[in-house]
Structures are given as C-alpha cells and as structure tokens.
Design brief:
462 residues; alpha+beta; 7-stranded mixed beta sheet; 7-stranded antiparallel beta sheet; 10 helices; 31% strand; globular
Length: 462
C-alpha cells in the first residue's frame, strides 16, 4: 500500500482526504472505506483514485488484494449500516473541536498503524460485497461477533480469520442521536483494538458501510447558483417489484442486492440483478408469474446475464394451515435459476417462512454464508451457483395495496450472544448453589476446651 499509506499521521490526514472528496462532488450511494493494519510493509498497489473518482467493485477487489498481500490475515471488518463522508464532517471534530469528535478511537488507530488505506468514495454495491471479497481472498468463512465474544477467543496469528462486527447508525431526526450512535460504534472499535493488542495478535482492520447515509442528488452545472446553499439529502429507495393478478397486487419483492455467482474455470463470476430489477432503469419482465390462494410464483426474466441469452430467477411459494400453531403459514419452497435451457434449484422452505398475513424479511439470504438456501441434490446444477440477497423482503399472499404487510424478521430472539449469557449465568448459579450447600453442611463443635479448667479428655473409644 505504498501509494495510499499514511504512516505516522493521525486521522486528520485521512479526514482531510475525505473532506477533499466531499467538496469535489458526490453522486448517489458513495461510501467511504478506511483500512489500516497493526503491522506490515509497503508494497506495490494501484495508484490512488483521482479526485472525484468512484471506486468500482473490480477496483476495490484489486485494492484489497494488494493490501492483504503484505498485511496480517487476521481481518477485522467493522460493517456499519450506513456511512457517508458528511458523517466525518459533522461528527469528526474536523474544525478544531476535537473534544466533540465521535471518532477518537478511529483516529488513535490510524495514528498507531503502520500502513493505512483511505478510499473516500466507493460504490455502495461494492462495499456491500466487502465481506464476500475478503472471504474469497482469505479463503475462510466470516465470524459475526461482538467485543465480549472476541475477548473469549484466542486467535492464532498464523491462521487467517475474518471477524465481522456489525455497527448500527442513528435514524432519528435528532442529530445528537446519530452522534451518540457513532460515538458508541467508535467505542466498539476501541474495545476490539484493545483486545487484539492485549493478545499480541497482528491484525488488519476495515471500516465501511453497506450503504450511504446521505445521498446527494445530482444537479446540472447550469442550475448551480453563485454563493452558498444548504446541502439537501434524500433517502433514495426504489419501489418493490409488484405482480398483479386480475388488477390487484398479489406478490411484492424488494432487495438491496440480488447477487448470483457462477463458478467458471475455478473462479466465481458475480452479477447483481438489482439494478435491472428495481428503479427507473428496471428492464425485468414478469411473464410466467402467477398467484392463487395456495401457491404463488414470481418469475423475473432477464437477458444477457453472465453471457446467457435468457436468464430467469424464480421464487416459488406456498401457504397452508398448520394444526400445531392453529394458523396459516407461507413458505418460499424453492429459488430456481433457469438459463439457456438449464435449471438450478435451491430449497428454501427450511428457513424462509412467515405467517401467511405477514411478509418475510431478512438482512441476508444466502446459499453459502450462513446458508438458508440449499441445492436440491448433490447432482443439481445449483452446486455451481451461489446466491446472495441483501436486505431481502418478499410477500406472496394477502397483499393489501402496494405496501408490504408487517414483516416477520429472520433474526431469532435468542441470538448466540444471548445463549452464551444464559449459559454463563446458569453456570454461575450452579456454582453459587453448590457453595451454599457446602456452607450449610458445616457443623459446630459440641465440645470446647476451657483454658482455665482441666483439659478435655476424649476417649479413644468414643
């Protein structure tokens, strides 16, 4: 990372680069990415992006490959829900108010790092795939955890690991709420850094987000007025795919990313179908779709996907009454890929289900990372494919209007952290109960020796 390293400098230099890009103009969905390591040496890397340039997915992959070639392979990925350059401007204390900065631990990490990489503007579609890119380059599966769980692990510097820490983002109107959330995220980064340093394990850290927190609408140059103007932000959300039967909506689908990957010549080729499915540039056709009281089928028809002339992504769903729960449930039975006369089938009914009156939502529906989709058989062509749907939501029954019903989220109430806490608490209760039991078994002596009187004589036969 010779071209992009910032040795011996603080977060001020990194934020200066970010602010330079912020002033030069922003397009929709640009996310910053900051990368640093505890040790490593400079190596040949791609030249820094030009001012105002947005780093694409292929360019980001080359940057990460060059960085990891000389950096530790214990990778810490801090993935925030949303992040933009404006967050560093508003909450980073860049105007001299360092005591109000929400990124103090990030600044300290950059100051102490040997090398660092700052990409102020990366396509959000690319940052959404950072986990997959790191997984491929490290050849290891990601572990999702928190600082408390990390403190109980003992990492090996010689074994590559990918640890993912999910960070929230304030969504309230009150600006202080966002500042507090960012400060809390910075505290998490500080805790993780302290744990890694205490274990003397070298690491490489990446801080980025799934999407931009602020999207600036492009304005033609002729419409710019002389003088200052307030920044206006907007949340750009494309409407869901809507299939109608007899004039009424019966199927809704939305996702941030619809990634399909095909294994060719030992390498995974990836294509995101979301830009072709949602928004004004959508070219998807729904021919072949249908819905009735018990079954629904959504067929997304594409052309020229991964060099296939015809390509279909099919979601097959059904609903029925279950006597045990005394209510109706709908399941997504299969996800099918049809391409140039061939078919790949994934079973999904084991994990993708919801009450019939609800929609189903999940942050990630995948066939390879915490898989919910499984090939139909060992010989099915689905073994040559990988699917990954981010921020996925679907409803195939009981749709009212053009909006999703209440969402049944895939995240279970008892997370691994909760189970670990319950197990630890139970273990402590058992230890306490055993200790109290031992104390209650103590017996007071029935005879005492009086120093002023004769000594007590205890017969041997007693």
């Amino acid at each position: 990372m010779a071209d992009m390293k910032v040795p011996g400098r603080g977060c001020t230099a990194a934020l200066a680069v970010l602010l330079t890009f912020s002033a030069l103009g922003r397009c929709a969905e640009q996310v910053p990415l900051i990368m640093w390591s505890s040790e490593g040496s400079a190596t040949t890397s791609p030249s820094p992006p030009a001012a105002g340039h947005v780093v694409s997915g292929d360019q980001l992959e080359s940057y990460l490959r060059a960085a990891l070639s000389s950096s530790p392979h214990n990778v810490l990925l801090f993935m925030q829900e949303r992040l933009s350059v404006d967050d560093f401007t508003m909450y980073g204390g860049v105007f001299g108010n360092k005591q109000d900065s929400s990124f103090t631990n990030l600044e300290a990490a950059l100051q102490s790092s040997t090398t660092s990489l700052v990409l102020p503007a990366v396509d959000s579609l690319a940052t959404g795939e950072v986990t997959g890119l790191l997984q491929e380059q490290l050849d290891t599966s990601p572990l999702y955890m928190d600082p408390e769980t990390l403190a109980q692990l003992r990492l090996n510097a010689s074994v590559a690991t990918l640890l993912v820490f999910r960070l929230p983002y304030g969504t309230g109107v009150d600006m202080m709420s966002t500042k507090d959330v960012l400060s809390g995220n910075d505290d998490v980064i500080g805790q993780v850094m302290n744990i890694m340093n205490s274990q003397s394990v070298p690491y490489t850290a990446v801080y980025t987000a799934l999407s931009a927190s602020r999207t600036i609408e492009d304005v033609p140059l002729s419409l710019h007025s002389v003088g200052r103007s307030l920044l206006q932000s907007r949340q750009k959300i494309s409407p869901p795919v809507e299939f109608q039967e007899k004039g009424s909506t019966c199927i809704l689908l939305w996702a941030e990313n619809l990634n399909v990957e095909l294994l060719r010549s030992g390498k995974w080729e990836r294509h995101d179908l979301a830009p072709m499915t949602f928004g004004e540039s959508s070219r998807v056709k729904l021919s072949g779709s249908f819905c009735n009281a018990s079954h629904s089928r959504l067929v997304l028809n594409y052309e020229n996907v991964l060099n296939f002339r015809s390509f279909k992504l099919i979601f097959a769903m059904s609903q029925r009454h279950y006597k045990v729960s005394a209510r109706r449930w709908f399941t997504m039975d299969q996800v099918v890929l049809e391409y140039d006369g061939q078919k790949a089938t994934f079973n999904a009914s084991r994990y993708v289900y919801a009450p019939a009156e609800y929609s189903y939502r999940c942050e990630s529906v995948s066939s390879f990372r915490y898989a919910q989709l499984f090939p139909h058989s060992d010989k099915d062509r689905a073994n040559q494919w990988r699917l990954s749907f981010d921020d996925f939501q679907i409803q195939g029954f009981n749709v009212t209007g053009q909006d999703f019903s209440y969402a049944s989220d895939c995240a279970s109430f008892f997370t691994p952290g909760i189970w670990m806490g319950l197990f630890t608490s139970l273990l402590m209760v058992l230890i306490l109960t055993y200790g109290l039991h031992m104390i209650l078994q103590l017996r007071t002596m029935d005879r005492f020796d009086d120093p002023k009187g004769p000594a007590i004589s205890v017969p041997q036969t007693e």
